[in-house]
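Reopening closed ticket. The problem is back. First fold of the pair:
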Amino acid sequence: MLTDILHSSHKVVIGEKTYEFEFDHLSYAMLEKQTHKSIYEFYDDLLVKHNILFQETYAFIAAGLLKHHTDTDVIDLQNKLRQNPGLWQTIKKSVCSAFIDPLLPPEILLHTKKKVPAKKRKKSKKPDITG
């Protein structure tokens, strides 16, 4: 069965709420419009500097949640981040992965995706009939 390697979501649990981050063309366009930065500038920042400006995290959250959540959910998570800025460090890896994955060439993703191990067959013991 083929899997869609270009569109994958990344889930993050904060408290009792699960947030699902996924970036597509619409979310990239929204991020560019809000920050006035190209997605490739963010791509470079994340791959070279391994970080973005803290003020940009609010736009990242809004863009990443756009596909699977309501505006209320987005505002709720942004407010949690304002109250607890350290929260960004706990969700940063998932949000950044959701952002970068669709921008990687499919050939790279095919080799980096985790493969599900095949089930091993148990060897059946033959009964000892030699007595």
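Second fold of the pair, where the issue appears:
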Amino acid sequence: MINIQSKSFLVLLTCLLTTILLSQKKDSRWQNLRDTKINISKSGPYVGLQKGQFMNFEIGYEYQWKKVKLVKPKTNSLHLGISYNYFNNVLGYEFGYYNKTGRANFTYGINSIYLTDFVHNRIGITPVIGYKLFGFHIQAGYNLLTPVANFKKVNSPFLSLRFFILNKRDIDFKN
């Protein structure tokens, strides 16, 4: 009986000492995992519809980069696109940026736009606020354009729904 108790005590003491000695080791896997920085970049085309006073079809390319964190991850994106209104023959070019801080927060961005009806031209900027979920990105914005008396068939306030098609993804781990 004493022999079993002494063996149990010896096994317990060995496990306890091993745990104490190994916990002081500096090159711990958990320490390296905590200090690892993860950056993800994604790119691909998008298609969408813009609805305001007029309906526009959108197509373009988007590049996103993200710093993965447990608290408040940051996502940034650049996009370049073309929009077209078939019924009013208005073509638009758009270059924009948006930022999202957190997992379920809004996106805040700004776009620079150039619109033409092949006779007159308008340029401007567009502040946008949106929400992104599962590749869909809905945005509300207001086009602040240069005034042209003969070219009025463009959206001022609008809603835009885009679908991002993931084409390429890169993941970088840095210690």
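Update: turned out to be a display glitch only; the data is intact. The longest helix spans residues 2-23. The mean pLDDT is 88. Please close again.
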